[in-house]
């Protein structure tokens, strides 16, 4: 038994692309489909906001930018802000005097 010839197969149509998401999960309140992105390409600005906790983010856009790109930038900006906040809180507090007193654990006088 042989294979079917390629010429007898009908050509398939173009593959369908699934549309990208336009609503996302909020990083702060964790509600699904609560974050939406509005893009104004004429002004070159995109605004992202959560309907539940009212978190907002704004970014510049170009003709190739999609809503998922703005959401990814928001995630990166939130991670950078959190990392910056943790490094600031962990800095040692500088003392006002530069000389440190000597610590003694007993007296030599008897």
Automatic annotation (TrEMBL):
Residues 1-20, 82-110 are annotated as: Disordered. Residues 1-14 have a biased composition (Basic residues). The keyword Nucleus applies. InterPro entries: Elf1 (IPR007808), T_Elf1_sf (IPR038567). Its main location: nucleus. GO terms for molecular function: RNA polymerase II complex binding; zinc ion binding. One of its GO terms (biological process) is transcription elongation by RNA polymerase II. It comes from the Eukaryota. It holds the Pfam family Zn_ribbon_Elf1. One of its GO terms (cellular component) is transcription elongation factor complex. Keywords: Metal-binding, Nucleus, Transcription, Transcription regulation, Zinc, Zinc-finger. It is found in: Nucleus. Residues 86-99 have a biased composition (Polar residues). Belongs to the ELOF1 family. Transcription elongation factor implicated in the maintenance of proper chromatin structure in actively transcribed regions. This is Transcription elongation factor 1 homolog. The lineage of its organism: Eukaryota, Fungi, Dikarya, Basidiomycota, Agaricomycotina.
């Amino acid at each position: 038994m042989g294979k079917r010839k390629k010429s007898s197969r009908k050509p398939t149509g173009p593959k369908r692309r699934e549309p990208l998401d336009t609503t996302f999960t909020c990083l702060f309140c964790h509600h699904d489909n609560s974050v939406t992105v509005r893009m104004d390409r004429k002004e070159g600005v995109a605004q992202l906001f959560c309907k539940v906790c009212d978190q907002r983010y704004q970014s510049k856009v170009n003709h190739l930018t999609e809503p998922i790109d703005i959401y990814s930038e928001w995630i990166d900006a939130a991670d950078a802000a959190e990392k910056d906040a943790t490094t600031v809180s962990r800095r040692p507090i500088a003392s006002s005097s530069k000389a440190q007193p000597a610590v003694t654990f007993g007296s030599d006088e008897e």
